[in-house]
Design brief:
The protein is an alpha+beta fold. 25% of the residues lie in helices and 23% in strands. Helix 5 crosses helix 7.
Length: 252
């Protein structure tokens, strides 16, 4: 709570990272990306990162590299009840500064529309982008993703979609690509629940927390079904396998 309060106060002066990572999974790229030592995981890479906001310079490297999309940049300096949130964006929809996008919460539920004020490539090698979205300040700590495609569904006359990379990964935990998800849809699956039971999509460490929105979009497009018809699946807390010997009190 103290860290979040410090982040909130610092954000009034400019961009600062917000980490929401409590998962005990082997992951530490944020620590390696931070040049100022603001993020520390330590030798046990299953330990959630420790974060010192006073060291953060708002560079956004941790936002770009986090595989769990658990880091965003928060900037409250615009004032007037507005705040800017910088997020990673991996879809190939056209995203340009000056346009609009839907701000999504951690469950992929739209909070409302925001204004895109900046876009930048995450790195030279990565096709992903960092998108800065301006939203009402009261949403700023809830925004965990953005989506442009919802706007296309609302306005079909503007629904000319750009070409997509079929090799793009939609479920990182189970390493399932866009092409594989489309192939499952072609087999006759019409709901996220059925797709999940057959393919294990959304059953990895994140339990669908980060991939459900993209999967729903792919399935809706492949089957011409509405979001209500495609449905959702319940996002369960992530788990980590535990050896039986541990349960028996051994260290191995």
């Amino acid at each position: 709570m103290e860290v979040m309060r410090e982040v909130w106060e610092m954000a009034a002066k400019g961009a600062v990272a917000v980490l929401v990572c409590r998962e005990q999974i082997p992951c530490n790229p944020c620590e390696e990306a931070c040049r100022r030592g603001a993020i520390v995981v330590g030798e046990d890479i299953c330990t959630p990162p420790r974060y010192d906001p006073s060291r953060c310079d708002g560079c956004g490297r941790c936002v770009a590299i986090c595989p769990g999309m658990a880091v965003v940049l928060l900037d409250r300096s615009p004032g007037g009840g507005r705040a800017r949130v910088t997020l990673p964006y991996e879809m190939r929809d056209a995203v340009e500064a000056g346009g609009e996008a839907w701000a999504l919460d951690a469950e992929g539920v739209p909070l409302g529309k925001g204004r895109i004020v900046r876009t930048a490539k995450a790195s030279r090698k990565d096709a992903a982008m960092l998108v800065t979205l301006e939203v009402p300040e009261e949403w700023s700590l809830k925004v965990k993703g953005l989506r442009v495609r919802v706007m296309s569904l609302e306005a079909p006359q503007e629904a000319e979609m750009p070409s997509r990379d079929e090799g793009r990964t939609v479920c990182r935990c189970e390493e399932i690509s866009c092409a594989e998800a489309q192939a499952y849809a072609a087999m006759g699956f019409r709901s996220l629940g059925a797709l999940r039971r057959y393919s294990r999509i959304g059953l990895g460490y994140c339990q669908g927390r980060f991939c459900q929105t993209m999967l729903a979009g792919e399935l809706q497009e492949a089957t011409s079904r509405t979001p209500e018809e495609v449905g959702t699946f319940r996002v369960r807390p992530p788990v980590r396998p535990v050896k039986l010997s541990r349960l028996g009190g051994e260290d191995g």
